[in-house]
Amino acid sequence: MYAVIIGGGKVGRNLAEELLDDGIVVAIIEKDSAKCEQIASSINALVINGDGADFSALESAGTNKADFTIAVTGSDEVNFVVCQLAKISFKVKITLARINDPRNESIFNKLGVDFTYTTTHIIAKMMHETINCKECGFPFAIPEFLSRKSKFEMIRFVIKENSPAKDKNFSDLAIPEGALAIAISRDGEMMLPSGKITLKAKDILYFTLRKDLHDVVRKTIVGI
Question: Which domain covers residue 28, as residue numbers?
Fold first, then answer.
């Protein structure tokens, strides 16, 4: 797989390191030349000094071959333009964007950005849940899954029209031991997984699984 990351700050650099550890080929586009030098000297990735919202920079990064385009700059305007260019001009299947101002989230979603991440909401939600769990005496699990040292991860898979899991009963899926389905989302409603549920296009399956089983489960559910 190949990912083009726009933005070489802390988020972009850390993400690049994570992806490289997973064996994913990475290119990074960053405007700041000094940051480019630092990144190029420390990680094994193609680093391009340029504006990610510029067609030529995206072209130089080989965005036409990318499986993912990921915009994580500090500018919502740049992140939005990057995702639009990736979709329209380079036919990238999956775009991901960091959103700095929560008021812009609905615009990104309405105009076709596949996955959006609003920093403010994520941090507030995690802090809120930490406080609630601490008062109840239960450990808060998400930070443990987010740790790079963790052997497990929480992931979601989206059923598409061409997914091998589409129209199959959940019990018919060959889910390996070490992977546990924890929920299914359909039309905004959450359901507990059961063998009698027939999976439909646009269903979202949430799993807790060992990281080494990610590819196996993804191929079973999504097919790629």
Answer: 2-118
